[in-house]
What does this fold into?
Amino acid sequence: MKKNVLVARNTLKALPLIPSETIDMVYMDPPFFTQRKHQLKNRSNESFSFQDTWKDIADYTDFIKKVVKESHRILKPSGSIFLHCDKTAAHHLRLLLDEIFGVQHFQSEIIWTYRRWSNAKKGLLNSHQNIFFYSKSTDFKFFPIYTDYSPTTNLDQILQDRVRNAEGKSVYKRDENEATVLTKEKKGVPLSDVWDIPFLNPKARERVGYPTQKPVFLLQRILELTTQTGDIILDPMCGSGTTCVAAKSLGRDYIGIDQSEDAIKIAECRLKEMVISSSNIAKNGLASFFSKTRLETAILHSIKAFPVQRNGGIDGFLKEFIENKPVPVKIQTSKESLTKAYSKLIKATEDPKFHWKILIQTKASDEVLEKSDNVILLQSLGLQLK
Ligand SMILES: C[S@@+](CC[C@H](N)C(=O)[O-])C[C@H]1O[C@@H](n2cnc3c(N)ncnc32)[C@H](O)[C@@H]1O
It folds into this structure.
């Protein structure tokens, strides 16, 4: 069997050609039953699309069932499948996986969550997708990943061993002298089934303009959990080849299948010139992204503004528009002169979509600020008190 190949073909025709029990892991990211065509353009204005329209849900699940059945056949007994979907059809697909892989081989429903800007739709903002993880047998490959303790974990919880008492309650273990017992070495907290990994941002170099492209980081995590160097990974609907790029980056072999010639061409290019954007949120946690101090956050909240991150000239926006335009807010930092803070605000808000702007002065100074009339200068409460 050939490996490290991309196959431009209907997956239902290509999968039967793969010998049984030869694949270590299958990741599949099929159309989600959105009943629409997905279309996107790349930086050169080339358009890519795939169809996600079906007669009805039975037509859709019938197709997925065939792919899952074939996937089950070609997986080694130590292998696993990851099926990526969303709220549209997740409930149908879980039942289908139970039927083919067996309820006892269900391992996890991974919730991939990401931030989104709100939209006007009535109801809760959808900000997650689902990835079902099933193993082929109970003896499946799994390599745990550990994460840091949560900030609320106290030292005793980390260092002291626990047992269940007669009532089944978890209590600290004590020796014959009633002293607490040191726990075994811990590597941290096992990775949970909720993964906060950002969507590729529109400017990320990794983004190739293929609709519904997934981040390589997401696939690398799945691969690290369930495969080893030299293992062979199959993606039966690989799109722009994200799974193959992740596999290659980690020294795994891959087979990618997609019926779209365009998708396969993109995947080929990505595999030649590997571009993987690093995700600070994913690596260092969401907290690493929040650059505002508690004082800055409090100042913003006190004027009914919400904070924004990663912009030297804008710290937040008023929740309410003034004269139909958003109002950016800049807070002078302890290292900035008032003039410097003002010029940063002006530079960041040159766009005509802004008119009124707010500058919060936090330090006393003799500077005479020559400011434009549409900039409202406010003194922080701390400065007023001084
Ligand atoms: C959600 S996209 C995959 C996106 C991919 N994970 C990525 O990161 O770019 C689904 C893909 O399934 C492919 N597809 C749908 N039906 C197929 C079939 N019968 N055979 C092969 N590919 C198919 C589409 O062409 C599309 O590229």
User: Anything to note?
Assistant: The first strand starts at residue 5 and ends at 8. Residues 10-12, 29-31, 50, 210, 212-214, 237, 239-240, 242, 257-260, 263 surround S-adenosylmethionine (CB under 6 Å).
